[in-house]
Amino acid sequence: MKIYELAEAEEKFADLIWKNEPIASGELVKISEKEMDWKKSTTYTVLRKLCDKGIFQNENAMVSSLLTREEYDAKISVRFVEDTFGGSLPKFLTSFMGVKKLNKKQAEELKKLIDDHKEG
């Protein structure tokens, strides 16, 4: 799995793109200046890094995502479980539920999710 870790500023910038895509790169520069107080060179440097990570593309001065926000979040979540709990979802859930209790609706949703994703 490709590593997608983003610094805080990169993630904020990525959110700007996701909210406005597809967006002309010149317009992205203007939004980045207004929202993040970035110069043009900073915008293009960070955009290039995010393109190199396979999250966005900048083709013909039009910026769009290769991963949706939801796909990005899913990859980060899987990596967290792999790195922290050896890839064991039951270990993660045990740890999570040791701190936070599920209400009845959440428990039913979790049961349904498990049933819907069982192999075989």
Structure in a nutshell:
The chain has six helices and three strands. The protein is mainly alpha-helical and 120 residues long. A three-stranded antiparallel sheet has the order 1-3-2.
Question: Would you mind describing this structure in some detail?
Answer:
This protein is mainly α and 120 residues long. It folds into two domains: 8-67, Arc Repressor Mutant, subunit A; 70-116, no CATH class. The chain has six helices and three strands. It has helices at residues 8-20, 25-36, 40-52, 69-85, 89-97, 104-116; strands spanning 23-24, 56-59, 62-65. Strands 1-3-2 form a three-stranded antiparallel beta sheet. β2 and β3 form a beta hairpin. The two termini are 25 Å apart. The relative contact order is 0.12.
| Largest sheet descriptor | 3 strands, antiparallel
Number of domains as seen in the coordinates: 2
Mean pLDDT: 91
- The CATH topology of the largest domain: Arc Repressor Mutant, subunit A
| Terminal CA distance | 25 Å
Strand content: 5-15%
Task: Using the CA coordinates, give the radius of gyration.
Answer: 19 Å
The succession of helices and strands, N to C, reads HEHHEEHHH
Secondary structure category: mainly alpha
- How many strands in all? 3
Assign the CATH architecture of the largest domain.
Orthogonal Bundle
Regarding CATH, which class of the largest domain?
A: Mainly Alpha
Shape category: elongated
How many H/I helical runs?
6
Helix content: 55-70%
Sequence stretches where pLDDT stays below 50 over 5 or more residues: none
What spatial order of strands do you see in the largest sheet? 1-3-2
